[in-house]
Amino acid sequence: MISCFGKLTWLALLCTTFLSAQATDVVEYGRISDADRALLQAPADSAAEAYVLYDHLDLDFAYRDGEGPSTVETTHRRLKLFKPSAYERANITLSFNREYVEYTDVEGIVHLPQGGSILLTSADIVTQKGEGLTMTTKFTFPRLCPGATIEYRYVKRTKSILTPTVYTFQEDIPVRWAEYTATIPAYYDYVSLGASGRYHINESKIISREWGPSFTTGPYASRNELDHTRIRWVMTDLDAYDYQPYSNNFIDYLPKARLQLRGVWYPGEGKRSIFSTWEETVDELQDRKDFGRYYRNKINYGRLWSAAEANIAAAADLRGKIEAAYRFVVEHYRWNGYFSILATDAPNKTFENGRGNSADLNIALLSLLNEAGIDAHPLLVSLRNGGAPIEAYPMLQQFDHLMVYTEVDGQTVLLDANDADRPVGLPRVAALNHRGWVAEKGNPRWVNIEVPPAKQTVMVSMDVAADGQTTAHLRSRLESYYAFDARSALNDMTNDREAPLASVIIAQYPDAVVLKTTHEGAAKGANSDILSLDVDLQLPAGQAMNDFLYIQPVLLPMLDDQLDDVESRLYPIDFPYPWIQRYVAQINLPEGFVVDELPASLRLKADDGSIAVVYSVDENVALRAVTVNFAVQLDRTLYTSGEYGGLREMFRRIIDLQQAPIVLKRAK
C-alpha cells in the first residue's frame, strides 16, 4: 500500500529527475580488492593527497515504547591515503552531547598496500568526558604509509528526529562513491533543504516492514506492516571541490542531503505540523527555563544583579549603562569554547562558576540590561561557514549562537560578551553572517547583522640608503576589528617580530629587523575601540641595479593577490565586515639620487560605489622627499560570483598600485 501521505512527502523531497539505475555491488566492510589495495594515486587527480573510495551514510529510525522515535545513522567510510600530508585524516574525533546522542559499534581497520590488514582494538577507541554533557570518542589508525587505506564504521543514535545529520557528497579530495540512503516511516513528513546534484543513482520506493508504536485505529492499526519510503542518492567520480578565498557558507554550494522534519501524522491524532510560526516559536523560547525565564525572572539572576548594580547605576547615560553591564560580564566570565542558543544554568550559577557557553554569557548580559530598564533582546545567528540562515521556516536547529540586540538613539547595537579585549558593538567575526533573528516576544523579526567599518590609518617615514636599506617609522591608529586583532596579538606575542603591522611587513621582507614597538590602549581589557601603535624597523625596501634604485613605498598591502588569482569565481566574495585603510608614506631620498619615475596618481570607484580608491604620488624637490597617499574604502561585504569579473579588474588595479615602485637614478 502506498499512502497519499507518502506520495506528498516525497513529491517535495524528490525534486530532481528520477533516474533508474542498477545498484552497485555492496561494499563489504573489511574486504578490499587487490586493485584498490595497490592504488597509489587518484585516477583523475594524481596530485591528490587522499581519495575517498567509498562513503555511505544510512538513515534509519527506531522506536521504543516510553521513549518515542529516534534516528539511527550508520556511517561506513573507506579512505585511501597517498601522501604523509593526509595522515591527519586518520585521526577521527566524534563529539556529542551524551544526553541526546550515543555512538556505538565503532570499528576501524587499516589495509596495508603491501598486503595484510590491522584491526583496531577496543583499547584504540577511547571515549572521554568533556565540558558539561559533552563526550568525545577518538581513534587513530596505526602503521600508516603511502598507499594505506583506512576504513571505519559506527552507529549514531539520536533522540531527536527533527534534523538528521547533513550529508555532503563532495569533499576537498576526490570521491569515487558517495551514497546517502534513508528509510523513513510514513508517520513522518520530511522536507529536503539540501542542494541536489547530478546523481548516478536516484531511487525512491515504498517498502513495508514492522516498526513503531501500537495503534488500535486507522490504517496503521497493526505494527507488523508500516509503509516506509526508501530513498537512495549516489554520486560518483566527484572532483575535489575548489575552495576559493573570501568565501563564506561554502557548504551551501556543495551537493548535500539535508532533511528537516515538517510534520508528524500518527493514526487517530491528525497531522501535527513541526513548522509552526516565528511568533509561536518565540513564545516557546521565552517560556523555556534555559532561555527566556533565565533572564526575565529575577530569582534566576538576583545575585548577579547585586554584584553588578553599582557599576551600572554609576553610568551617566544609556550607552554608559550598556557599556558597564557588558564590561562586568566580560571581566567576570570566561567563555568555555562552546557556542549555543541555550544556557546551561541560571545566571546566578554561571556567575558563581565564572564560565559558560556563549548563551550563558549573553543571557547574563541580557539579565543585567533588562533589570537596568534597557530594552534588549536575544539575537540568534548561524555562524559563518555553517550555512546561510533559512528564513522561510522557523527552525531553531539552524542557529548556533546567541547575542544581544539593543538600540541607542535609534541605532542598532550588537553585543556579544566573550573577550575583554573586544569592545561594545563588536560581535565576534564568526557571528557576522549577514542575518540574525531577534527573539522578542510579540515582535520576532529578522535583522541585518551589520557593523561600522573597521579603520586602519598608518603614517610612515622612510629613510632610504643608496643600497636600498631603509629605516622606517610607522605610526598607526587602529579602530574596531583592526584594534581588537592588534590588541590580542600584542597580548599574545612572544617577541617584537610578532607585533601587529611588523609581522605583515616581515612576511614580505623576512630579513627585516624590528627596532622598537610602542603602543597605547593595548592593555588587557582596554575599554576603548582605538589602539595607537608605533613600530620602527630596518628592511630592504629598495633594490639597487646599476645606476638605478627601485623603492617599494607601500609596506602594508591593502589586498592580497588571492582576490585576483582566478578568472572566474564559483562562489560569492564575502568579507566579514566593511573597512577603510589609509596609508601615507614620506620617502626621504638618499644623497646622490634623484627621481627618475613616479607611479601615476589615480582615483577609482566601483560601478555601485562600494569600493573607492585614491592613490597619489607627489615629489617635494626642496625636501628631497616623495609622498605617497593611498586609501581604499570597502563599504559592501557581499558580492555575487557573477559580479567578480568587474571586481577583479578593480582588485588588480589596487594590487598593482600597492606594488608600484618609485624609481630613482644616480645624479650626474
UniProtKB/TrEMBL annotation:
Domain DUF3857: from-to ranges: 71-186
Signal peptide: 1-23
Keywords from the named record: Signal
Protein name per the record: DUF3857 domain-containing protein
Source organism: Neolewinella maritima
